[in-house]
């Protein structure tokens, strides 16, 4: 996966995480946010180093859960 593709997915997922927290601040947990961002970063590092699936959707799944 090239760096542009990785960056586009990272930006999409970071935006989704931000939107998910904005939907419901009542459950805000700084540690959970840190963990979410660390998982995005870890996926990006792996994606740049190896051929990994481009279906990383953790941020979007979080937003869907917050909207439910």
A few lines on this structure:
The chain has 3 helices and no strands.
Give your account of this protein's structure.
With 68 residues, the protein is mainly alpha-helical. It has one domain (3-67). The chain has 3 helices and no strands. It has helices at 3-23, 30-49, 58-67. Helix 1 runs antiparallel to helix 2 and helix 1 (3-23) runs parallel beside helix 3. It is elongated and about 40 Å long. The mean pLDDT is 87.
Strands, helices and their partners?
Blueprint: H1 3-23, H2 30-49, H3 58-67
Helix content: over 70%
Low-confidence stretches are none
Largest sheet report:
none
Please tell me the overall pLDDT: 87
Radius of gyration: 12 Å
How would you name the oligomeric state of the polypeptide chains in this document? single chain
Q: How many structural domains can be distinguished in the coordinates?
A: 1
Gap between N and C termini, in Å?
A: 32 Å
Approximately how much beta-strand content do the residues carry? under 5%
Shape: elongated
SS element count, helices = 3
Structural class: mainly alpha
H/E element order: HHH
Number of strands: 0
